[in-house]
Design goal:
16 strands, Dihydrodipicolinate Reductase, domain 2, alpha/beta, 2 domains, UDP-n-acetylglucosamine1-carboxyvinyl-transferase, Chain, 9 helices
Length: about 325
């Protein structure tokens, strides 16, 4: 049994650790979970992902309760074709899917996930359009058929989203080497706001602010940004952009906040994407840490804008479980 210190890195240690444990069929013990946080131990969204992952791979699970500081996860075989992920709070749907995504790498049949509850947008978490258009899209390019369908959006504090995820059989044609971007093909985006904000034209205002900034620097490229109003129990808005290159995809986003103008949200998302584009990054900051578990299993390399704390956490956990050594030089990460 591999023992992991969960005191540093928050929920990422749990998500990546359990996902790789299930994928590799290696038992793990994670201790001091989220120690030092204002609400240490397992919270509802962590527990939901943990329980669903255990159900999917017939794992023996010890310590699965709210507030628990230590869990043991002993994975079994994946026999189910589907599993339900039930999130009682507005916790991130995208983050809760991460261990299930990794677990599915070892499945011998496609896996369907029904998501009940949770939030499709939230602070410190990748929004679901990013998961669909960057994470899943890049994996599809490499041979992992992955899809995410949002049936109902959820914003903080009530959440209560509804979604479906599908993970097909793994047929990776190559390691995860992102050595160059290739040519820029187009910029896409979605400006989403709840129906409560429709009269204020929040989605349109976010879109126009972003377009104004993007067109100043990317005059010769196609920029397509859709606006969408959705039903949700809690009001909110979000703006997600992604730049499609020949060999990669870069994403950026901004979350609407009370007291912050729609124009500022659109402007912030556009600024973040342009910062990624101006850099030599081949993966954006979100995707950089999300790709690390895959590189631990299959190898690879990429350049990023900066080495974030999330990235460092994932590097440490993946090295301990897979035995893969990662070399970090300036802003380039390579699995060796």
């Amino acid at each position: 049994m591999i023992e992991i210190d969960g005191a540093v890195g928050g929920g990422a240690v749990l998500r990546v650790g359990v996902g790789l444990s299930a994928a590799m069929k290696i038992p793990i013990r994670i201790q001091q979970i989220r120690q030092g946080r204002s609400n240490p131990g397992l919270q509802a969204q962590h527990l939901a992902a943990l329980v669903a992952t255990a159900q999917l791979c017939n794992a023996h699970l010890v310590g699965a309760q709210i507030g628990s500081s230590c869990i043991e996860f002993l994975p079994g075989e994946i026999e189910k074709n589907s599993v339900r992920l039930a999130i009682a709070t507005a916790g991130s749907v995208g983050l809760a899917l991460q261990p299930l995504q990794l677990t599915s790498l070892s499945a011998v049949h496609p896996i369907d996930i029904e998501i009940i509850g949770g939030g499709t947008f939230g602070k410190w978490a990748p929004p679901t359009p990013f998961i669909e258009k960057v994470n899943f899209a890049l994996l599809q390019r490499r041979g992992f058929d992955s899809h995410l369908t949002i049936l109902k959006h959820g914003f903080y504090p009530k959440g209560r989203a509804r979604a479906q995820a599908h993970f097909g059989l793994v047929e990776f044609s190559d390691s995860f080497f992102f050595l160059e971007r290739g040519s820029l093909r187009a910029i896409h985006g979605v400006s989403i706001a709840t129906n409560q904000l429709k009269s204020a034209k929040v989605a349109e205002r976010q879109r126009e602010a972003a377009l104004t900034l993007l067109k100043q620097e990317l005059q010769n490229f196609s920029i397509e940004i859709k606006t969408e109003y959705v039903e949700s129990l809690s009001p909110g808005s979000s703006f997600v952009l992604w730049a499609e290159y020949e060999k990669t995809i870069l994403g950026a986003d901004a979350l609407g906040e009370r007291g912050v103008s729609a124009e500022k949200i659109g402007h912030e998302a556009a600024q973040r994407l342009l910062k990624e584009i101006r850099s030599e990054a081949t993966l954006d900051q979100h995707m950089a840490d999300q790709i690390i578990p895959f590189m631990g299993l299959y190898g690879g390399s990429f350049r990023c804008l900066e080495i974030t704390e999330h990235l460092k956490t994932n590097l440490s956990v993946v090295e301990q479980i897979t035995g893969t050594h990662f070399e970090v030089r300036e802003k380039t990460v390579r699995a060796s």
